[in-house]
Design goal:
With 480 residues, the protein is mainly beta. The chain has 3 domains: 283 residues, Metallo-dependent phosphatases (Purple Acid Phosphatase, chain A, domain 2), CATH 3.60.21.10; 91 residues, Macroglobulin (MG2) domain (Immunoglobulin-like, Sandwich); 82 residues, Immunoglobulin-like (Sandwich), CATH 2.60.40.3080. The strands form 8 sheets. It has a 7-stranded mixed beta sheet. A 7-stranded mixed beta sheet has the order 6-7-8-9-14-10-15, covered by helices on one side. Strands 20, 22, 23, 25, 26 and 27 form a 6-stranded mixed beta sheet that branches. Helix 1 runs parallel beside helix 2. The protein is elongated and about 90 Å long.
């Protein structure tokens, strides 16, 4: 588990809390077909989970010792089992005493109903019946361990919503008190409920107050509360037929397992079949402090004049950003005043850029200039490869800026000495702004006075493109 230390001050008291991320597996109904279950375990072991929860019906049709061997035969899973990180809800195909006496333990506190905190997540096992003890459940959900967790999960054997025979429309066919159970999920912001009993995969829409709150694949839970109710009974028991109803977002008659990756501000949920292919995926996010973090250049890089390099960053904002170049702590130039916050910008370093080892890049939100990302350390810009003006038979086409001149070079092996050349200036949307050259020229190096050629064109960043036969070169051009 990734771990950081968070210090918060609340009414004069300092609260120190550990915040983690957690990756875990959810699945159920592994009885009957030992070979299918063994294959499922092998597949989710490759995900390197830190915890496995099981919604019941562990074994029947093969022995509990066989079920145990499926985990002990995989070193990483054996470690989880030994460390009490394989945890189950009791199904109807195993007795309570069999689950309690299993070694090493697959429950907590010697009880079929138990709650625990793992990393940044809080879990409650309700055993066979999700609505069996709502008073006890509420006590767990309103505890400090629960309310300081980033995400909350409940698992039991019987479903709340299912198109199978064992559950329907928020009430099970076996009389669970799930109306109050569902209210507790709403009140205490339970993220997901996992059940088995019906042998297929099914996930509801995002449900709040007994109604569909969202059908989206990405949901901001800070703005739209709700819970997913899932049936994950595809671990080896004979598969059942699926049905249809108002709550169904995805369902499939398939052996499967669920992979959940929980961080402080997002939960990624993916369901994979026995071959490892994703059959369902959703992401839950929370409002988090906006940030921009520069990835490259972030110190020690050596870039050269005339090269095109990728300035890259991560962020959680949607507005555009400004990219600036600083030298020695002082603004040197605006690389681009406004570009999409998509994490990458291709920068052609001007051929006349001053060299030095004290450069940094700064990226700033165009909406809130307090949201800033900057190189952690200096990077270097070195001299590039200059055009040899004496080499009129240059073997490569070149387009670059030196001082106030745009230099272009056409190779001497173009099969003739005269080449039709078009050099034009475009804005960043690709709209033609001005044609600089449209003529037949000879091979070698040619110069264009930029100041004279772009008179009347607004300052800013443009694309300059040269086309001649099969030659197509584009650079960025900053007009001041």
């Amino acid at each position: 588990m990734k771990r950081t230390l968070i210090v918060a001050v609340i009414t004069g008291l300092t609260l120190i809390q550990n915040s983690y991320s957690l990756k875990f597996i959810a699945y159920g109904d592994s009885r009957t077909n030992a070979s299918v279950h063994k294959g499922i375990v092998a597949k989710f072991a490759a995900e390197n989970p830190e915890l496995v929860i099981h919604s019941g019906d562990l074994w029947d049709g093969y022995a509990s010792s066989d079920w145990k061997s499926h985990f002990t035969s995989v070193p990483a899973m054996n470690t989880l089992l030994t460390n009490n990180k394989i945890l189950v809800a009791r199904g109807n195909h195993e007795t309570e005493s069999a689950v309690k006496s299993f070694t090493p333990s697959i429950i907590r506190n010697s009880s079929i109903t138990y709650a625990f905190r793992e990393g940044n997540c809080f879990f409650v096992s309700m055993g066979y019946d999700p609505g069996a003890n709502n008073t006890w459940l509420e006590t767990q959900l309103k505890s400090t361990e629960s309310q300081t967790a980033d995400w909350r999960f409940i698992y039991a054997h019987k479903p709340v919503y299912s198109t199978g025979d064992h559950g329907a429309d928020g009430t099970t066919s076996e009389g669970s008190n799930v109306t109050n159970f569902r209210k507790l999920c709403d009140t205490y912001k339970v993220t997901m409920f996992f059940a088995g009993h019906d042998h297929f995969y099914e996930r509801t829409h995002w449900i709040y107050e007994g109604k569909t709150a969202s059908e989206a694949k990405v949901i901001n839970v800070s703005e739209k509360p709700g819970t997913f109710y899932s049936v994950v009974g595809g671990g080896g028991a004979p598969l059942y037929s699926i049905g249809s109803d108002w709550w169904v977002n995805v369902n499939e008659k398939v052996y499967h397992y669920c992979v959940l990756d929980a961080s402080a501000d997002s939960l990624k949920f993916a369901v994979k079949n026995s071959s490892g292919t994703v059959i369902d995926a959703v992401t839950l996010v929370k409002n988090a402090s906006p940030y921009v973090t520069l990835k490259s250049p972030n110190g020690a890089e050596i870039w050269k004049q005339g090269e095109t390099k990728s300035i890259s960053w991560t962020d959680n904002i949607s507005e555009k950003v400004k990219v600036e170049l600083f030298k020695g702590g002082t603004l040197n130039s605006v690389i681009i005043d406004s570009t999409e916050s998509d994490g990458e910008y291709a920068w052609t370093i001007p051929a006349n850029q001053m060299t030095g080892n004290d450069y940094k890049i700064k990226i700033t939100s165009r909406v809130n200039n307090s949201i800033v990302g900057q190189s952690s350390a200096n990077f270097t810009i070195e001299p590039g490869v200059a055009i040899s003006l004496n080499n009129t038979l240059n073997s490569q086409a070149t387009l670059q800026v030196i001082g106030n001149e745009l230099l272009y070079c056409l190779p001497g092996n173009n099969n003739n000495s005269n080449n039709r050349v078009n050099i034009a200036l475009y804005d960043l949307k690709g709209t033609l702004v001005r044609t600089l050259v449209d003529a037949t020229t000879g091979s070698g190096v040619h110069r264009i006075d930029i100041n004279a050629s772009v008179n009347g064109v607004s300052a800013g960043l443009y694309l300059c493109r040269m086309e001649s036969g099969k030659i197509n070169k584009t650079i960025t051009l900053l007009l001041k």
